[in-house]
Amino acid sequence: MSTLWRLPHIQAILVLIIAMISMQSSGSLAKLLFQDFPILSVSAMRLFLGALILALIFRIWQVNFKHIHYSAIISYGIALAGMNVLFYLAIARLPLGIAVSFEFIGPLSVALYHARQKFDFIWVGLAILGLVLLFPFNSTTSLDPLGIFFALTAGTCWALYIVAGQKPSGVSGNHTVCLGMFVGMLCLMPIALFMGMPSAVWQPNHLMIFATLAILASALPFSLEMYALRNMTPLAFGTLTSLEPAVAALSGFIFLSEQLLWTQWLALSVIILASIGCTFTTQQAKQKIKAQLKQEKTTP
What we know:
Blueprint: H1 2-5, H2 8-33, H3 39-57, H4 70-91, H5 96-114, H6 120-134, H7 145-165, H8 173-194, H9 204-231, H10 234-241, H11 244-256, H12 262-298
Helix pairs in contact: 2-9, 2-10, 2-11, 3-4, 3-8, 3-9, 4-7, 4-8, 5-6, 5-7, 5-11, 5-12, 6-12, 10-12
């Protein structure tokens, strides 16, 4: 049994699960901070401290700044800032699991756009069904329309974040994330200061809380995901990350006492199934393309 846990792919699975728990727990912590601080201030401080922590971890001073493609970094940072603040605006109005489910439509749409399999229509249908099931029909509670708008817009930024992240930046992926967070912070911090960022955010005890948020939301999950990616297939990685809406819902239930209807739990399951299915068929398509290219090279 002890030998099993030493296998790199088993360790990678555990590491990725920890990364997802860390990321979604940070959403619960952020939601608690909204009680004392403006959402923009929380977003700006998360990106600011997250960028500083990642700069130390990935040794940003080793970057050759002459090689940076600034247009790619700036577009990536703007998408990151939008994704961050819009998601926080969404979870201020919606349960965490539901907000993540609406947001998850963004990356799922990117995957479906690039996929060309006959099963894609099934995944699109499941995703739409999941969205419909999220709404609490025949219930006294209703979802905040503005919260839904923020979550869907955050998903759009997530999609742009994926597209921008695939552009050549001239530096490593780790440094791209770090520099992108600095750009995102520069987008949000002036607005947060203009809107009246409380001076209390700079108090040592509050800085420690914001630093914890930055670690849970950025430094820890990004670092763990890098390890997982090196020891997992893209299919396994994509399948596991598809569980994020469920992890978010559990985090909201444990830390915030957020309750979901059984139809909304079903909606989460349907969206997760659509994401897993899309991940599988997309990877299958990539493998077929690679096999065809390999065959063409070997054929005289």
